[in-house]
Amino acid sequence: MELPDYAIEAKGLVKTYAATKTTPEMRALRGVDLAIPRGSIFGLLGPNGAGKSTFINILAGLCQKTSGTVSIWGRDIDSRPRDARAAIGVVPQEIAADPFFTPFEALEVAAGMYAVPKSERRTMELLNALGIGDKAGAYVRQLSGGMKRRLMVAKAMVHNPPVLILDEPTAGVDVELRRQLWAYVLELNRKGVTIVLTTHYLEEAQELCDQIAIVNRGQVVACEPTTTLLSRMDTRKVLVTPDEPMTAAPALAGFETALLASGGFSVMYRTGQSTVEQVLAAIRAAGLHIKDISTEDPDLEDVFVSLTYAAPEEVGV
Ligand code: ADP
Question: pTM score, two decimals?
Answer without folding.
Answer: 0.79
